[in-house]
Amino acid sequence: MPQVSVKGEIVEAATSVFRRSGFHGASIQDIAVVAGVPKGSVYNHFTSKVDLARVVVQRYAEGTSTGLLKGDGPALLRIRAHLEAELTRTRQSGLEFGCLLGNMAQELGDEGLAELREVVDASFKGWINALAEAIGEAQQTHEIASTLESHALAGLIIDALEGTALRTKALGTTEALDGFVDMVFATILD
Predict the structure, then answer these.
(1) What is the mean pLDDT of the chain?
(2) Euclidean distance between CA atoms 50 and 64, whole angstroms
(3) Nearest-angstrom CA–CA distance, 37 and 44
């Protein structure tokens, strides 16, 4: 009889545990318990906690709504839709957890985590690049008056969004999220 792969359940459980406890606060045993599998099953699919976290971060980054930044229509409308979708994602996944990418980034000071740091960095860079492309389009069509470099603007917006997610985590309310998009459009993308 073929064995059922529980890899997806392990990744789901790890996502939950990492969001709740952080990378350093999570153990493979915690993840196994949430996944409902023996600890050895985790090691059957992943060589280490770093290997599992790498997959979790990549999967989380793939869930970022960058697809909304591409396509037809005014670039500013696509940028707004993207930012609103990311705020909705934060609200739906739990204000107390913040953003998984930002949370992981805060814990990556150890030299032994260079591989995970690279994945988090690549995730942020991919997100910034997608946003910068849409900002560049909006600059070309004069939807955005700013002549600042599009990657710099995109980085500033992502940094502001991450700070907002962190503040939301601390407050436990949507207060910081509520005016974020309007503030970005009134200041950075004016």
Answers:
(1) 92
(2) 21
(3) 11
